[in-house]
Amino acid sequence: MPKLGKHVVVQDPIHGQISLSPFEVSVINHLDFQRLRFIRQTSLLHYVFPGAFHTRFAHSIGACHNAQLVLSKLFSNLRFQESVYALQVFRLAALLHDVGHGAFSHSLAHLEPLGENFLPTYEEVFKNHGDWAPTLSDELLRYLKIKFAVSDRTIDHEVLSVFITGKILTDLQSSCDQNNLLNVDIKFWIQDIGSLLIEEVSPSEKFMDSLFEVYDVCHNEFVHLDEGSVQSERGIKSLHQAFKSLITGTIDVDRMDYLQRDSVSCGVNYGLFDKEGIISALHLACMNGEINLALHSKRSNTLDDYLWSRYQMFRQIYGHRTHSAYDLLLSLALGDLIREGKVEKPVNLQDYLTLTDDFIMSKVIFEAQKNPNKKNWIQSFAHRKIPRFLGMYESQITDEIWNQDPYQIYRHTQENTFSRDQINFVSITRKSEILKRSDKFSELPLIVHYEKAKDIYILKSYLDQSVFFDTKLSRENRLSDLVARLNKKNIYFYSLDHPATCPDSK
Questions:
Q1: Rounded CA gap, 110 and 350, in Å?
Q2: Which pTM does this prediction carry?
Q3: What are the CA-CA distances from residue 139 to residues 194, 201, 285 (Å)?
Q4: 444: helix, coil or strand?
Q5: N or C end: fewer C-beta atoms under 10 angstroms in the chain?
Q6: 3-state secondary structure of 21
């Protein structure tokens, strides 16, 4: 890439030409961002769909491009957008939203080689936060600790993204032109990017002041559904939430990239939708003293298509039973590597940054070639001896059946089952959250309709217009019904009854 100081245009197979600012170029050139070149967007899916070798690197740049398309639509009257702090934070949040992914992306978070999580828990991380987040401000650490410090849950990639964002921006601080940083302290950039990635992080006063300025210039572009004023702290906070929903919501710049990129790379049409149609119909709507993301009613069925595309990608592609089998086998092979001292669990951020798909796969292939006669899970993975598929069960995420042991679910849901003494039973679960749920923003945008005769916008309801809904249901029950039908959890059952069942045998 060109040196810092120049805008660059890169050619992308999904979006065509993508323009990047000097600051974005400097972020992309940082080694910790470059590592995304070696992390596949879809983990081991290329074992099922050979073309799915695309990376988190390309996806992140695509998400940044989508962010600019959204900003251009929502704030078309705002000139020199690159000089507006809040808008540049939004673009960088899109660029850096996945920088916290490690090897095999989401799969790594669920791997339990040797019966324990491979990644550390929140409690472990915050006990040693100096090893994991040395560049974060005390204020930002305080936000994170309030929510996560005592959790025994495996750390999420979103939080790791904030840690790594802090490292990247701190490293760049001395080399970046202050004009590129808009003369804003780097600690505010880190905090404000974090506020768009993690619900528990609050934006800085600098970010809120910038949003006030954006509203002053662009409020005539917004859809006003009542006479109430939104130029208050509450109104501007809601604008921040609208920004956040465009990074991590139901309609966001992340999904608008990966659905199309994954679909094209896998050679299927399930993830294709009218992205330009959705972006062209986006609005910011003012109502009851708040600013909300809205969609023009003419694109209600385009939203249907978008949601259905995501559902189909989970059902047909991401949740493919062979892909899930490879994830299981990877967990066992990684256990072999850890047991033999070839790979170590990460104990600090630098350890974590070395974990890429290429790093672990090179270990697997090297060990398989070095010991071709050794029967272990490394050999099974290298030779693709995947577990035998026994069945699958799908239900709502909130179904009480998920409180049962996986083997109990297997016995209760499958017609022909084996006893434990007949098979080496294993299982893996997948969750698909099509409608993003949050306490801070709605799962769905408002729907607004323009009445030309009166020259006004009026509020409509997606619950009345979508083809998804059962019109016999009351409006109150339609959203919960849609969430129940689209947000699913799957469990896949397998038997590890291939020859390499004794990891220590030779």
A1: 21
A2: 0.94
A3: 12, 10, 32
A4: coil
A5: C
A6: coil
Q: Are 456 and 390 in contact (CB under 8 A)?
A: no
In a domain, 71, yes or no: yes
205: domain CATH number is 1.10.3210.10
Which residues have C-beta within 8 Å of that of residue 367, sequence separation ≥ 6?
A: 336, 337, 340, 342, 378
Give the position of tokens 């009854």: 497
| Number of structural domains the chain divides into | 1
- What pLDDT digit, counting tens, does each position of 116-135 carry? 788 999 999 999 999 999 99
Helix residue spans in 46-84 (DSSP H): 56-74
The identity of residue 14, as a single letter, is: I
Report the pLDDT value the prediction gives residue 231, as an integer from 0 to 100. 78
Burial environment of residue 275 by CB neighbours within 10 A (0 to 12, 13 to 18, 19 or more): buried
How far apart, in whole angstroms, are the C-alpha atoms of residue 234 and residue 282? 22
84 DSSP β-pair partners:
none
Using a 10 angstrom Cβ sphere, with 0-12 exposed, 13-18 middle and 19 or more buried, the burial of residue 224 is middle
Examine residue 309 and state whether it is found in any structural domain, yes or no. Answer: yes
Structural domain includes residue 249: yes
Region 373-394 average pLDDT: 94
Domain that holds residue 40: 8-320+435-459+473-488
389 is a domain residue: no
* Spatial CB neighbours of 124, under 8 Å, sequence gap ≥ 6: none
Res 143 pLDDT > 70: yes
Residues 6+ apart with CB under 8 A from 181: 23, 173, 189
Going by DSSP bridges, is the β-strand pair 223-224/16-20 parallel, antiparallel, or unpaired? unpaired
